[in-house]
Please model this.
Amino acid sequence: MEQKAVLDVTKSKIKKVTYYNVCPQCGKATETVVDVPDYAWDFICGGNTGHLCDECHEQKQAEERKKIEELRKHTLIQNSCVPENFWNWDKTKGNATLVKAIYEQKEHHLYICGGYNTCKTRAAACNLLIMAKRGNRCRFIRFSEMAGEYARICKIDSAAAKSYVNDLLRNNILLIDDLGKRRITETAGELLYDIFDRAYAGDCNAKIWVTTNLNL
Model:
């Protein structure tokens, strides 16, 4: 009959092993005593572990989480395509009333109109950055840029043109800046109709914000 090796730990000799730890960050000294059975004596020998103490470890973890969060926010801002000169814009120097009004209505489709030098773009971009920092997928795009890109794609592939619109509407907020600053061509009109119609019908989750000099 085959015999199996059996380890009876109840008969093992126990040695008290002390671990000393001096936190390399704050210098706090602690010691921990553990019971080590004789079969593990050669592997566990105590000494100074040199680990961070619990407080410093938690502080380091918090700093790492903060760095990751800041990187995530920075990435969202970069992907929003908001011009860099708006990133740290001081809203108190512009149309603070409009900034506040947009913020209070941020969950809705917005048509932001007014004359020149009323800070429409800055006020809208400021709020778009706020929403991006909160984890929303946002996109800032000038109407002329959007219309030009759409017209170029339409000449190449109609299926790609549909994908272009879908990509725009995957954002939580799509800010179309300076609508009507240039003549709205037939192709651009079709694009706008498609975007507005799908948003109105609830065919997407995007909120559409428009800045323009044109009266509604």
Observations:
- The chain has six helices and seven strands.
- Residues 54-79 form the longest helix (26 residues).
- The beta strands are 14-22, 29-37, 47-48, 110-113, 138-142, 173-179, 207-212.
- The mean pLDDT is 84.
